[in-house]
Design goal:
The protein is an all-alpha fold. Helix content is 76%, strand content 2%. The longest helix has 45 residues.
């Protein structure tokens, strides 16, 4: 009975997260495809990366992902029954330019003596979802105790102060600390066995994206490239993206719903371009079983990627169009690892019974 209850709670949480993303999954796919197309144009020298045209197109492609917390604030508030406009204002605090400039440098600032750890909030997921969940309870309490005459402005005033501070002091740092612990663990595992590190990142990158933990690994990758001129983290995360695409392709073939097939097709294309959120939140996570295929396929591909010894020579999210970044020792096996991840997750998902 207890095990059944735990499963039902997990199912409710997954359905809740998926419901928050469902209204924007098509928009995420469109933005992901545009980002991929922009990478192709830049790689083929049709557009210069330092040109004004690239600047404008990149803003169009990246704005959704950069301001993702604000979109999630709106959809989560609708799901949780909180005030949607108050939720968006709280998300705006996390992305306010003068504040994020300081926080994204890793600096700890203080609010009346309370330390606020430096955290990257753009493109984050969990901090704003937790914030909106808290907002629901704060508003519910305040609406009961605040007199009707002043409720209209006092409730949002107190809500923004309390929830905004709780997010900056607790929810954001909580995810960052967890991500840092995982990143340190990766460094130790890679030192012992690159294959084990590949299995770890290949299998667990998709779940980490749900909580935003992958950003700690991205920071390690950036630092490695800046200091050493190469990096292994990005290479080992590559198969995970292809495993997402493989699982979604299987779901597309199994589905008989034309509208949902369209969602799967755009999400798969987006994943092949390195943007896995549409596939994760729109297809594999809501249907649960494809996530098993994603993680297993990513783990198998990650093991081969670790065995290959491939490294990224410059920073780029792993995708079909950024393979040249990984050109060097073990490149052939690295490409094979991504193809194997795609095929393995595809076959596993085809075998499993997937909900429509």
């Amino acid at each position: 009975m207890e095990e059944k209850k735990k499963k039902s709670v997990a199912a409710v949480l997954i359905d809740g997260v998926a419901g928050i993303f469902l209204p924007i999954v098509n928009l995420m796919s469109a933005a992901g495809i545009l980002k991929g197309a922009l990478v192709i144009l830049a790689a083929s020298d049709l557009i210069q990366a330092d040109s004004e045209t690239y600047l404008v197109l990149n803003a169009m492609a990246d704005s959704l992902f950069y301001f993702l917390p604000m979109l999630l604030a709106f959809t989560a508030a609708g799901k949780f029954g909180a005030n949607q406009f108050t939720a968006v204002v709280i998300a705006g605090i996390l992305l306010y330019p003068s504040l994020t400039t300081v926080l994204e440098q890793g600096n700890t600032i203080h609010f009346l003596g309370l330390p606020l750890r430096g955290v990257t909030y753009h493109s984050s997921v969990i901090p704003i979802i937790l914030a909106v969940g808290l907002l629901h309870f704060v508003e519910e309490f305040l609406n009961k105790v605040i007199p009707e005459m002043i409720k209209g402005f006092v409730v949002p005033l107190i809500s923004v102060l309390l929830v905004g501070l709780a997010t900056l002091a607790l929810f954001g740092p909580m995810g960052a600390v967890t991500g840092d612990v995982l990143a340190v663990g990766y460094e130790k595992v890679y030192g012992l066995s690159p294959v084990a590190a590949g299995i770890f990142l290949g299998a667990f990158t998709p779940p980490m994206v749900i909580f935003g933990f992958q950003w700690s690994f991205i920071l390690i990758a950036m630092n490695n490239i800046m200091i050493n001129g190469s990096d292994t983290v990005l290479a080992l995360m590559g198969p995970a993206a292809f495993s997402q695409a493989g699982a979604v392709f299987a779901v597309l073939l199994k589905s008989k719903d034309r509208a949902f097939q369209s969602i799967c097709g755009s999400a798969m294309l987006s994943a092949l371009f390195g943007i896995t959120e549409p596939a994760l939140f729109g297809v594999s996570l809501p249907r649960k079983k494809p996530m098993a295929g994603v993680c297993i396929g990513g783990g198998i591909g990650g093991a081969l990627a670790g065995l290959s010894g491939a490294q990224a020579m410059s920073f780029a999210f792993p995708s079909l169009v950024t393979f040249p970044v990984f050109y060097g020792d073990g490149f052939g096996m690295y490409v094979l690892s991504c193809l194997v991840a795609f095929a393995a997750s595809f076959l596993i998902t085809m075998i499993l019974k997937v909900e429509e």
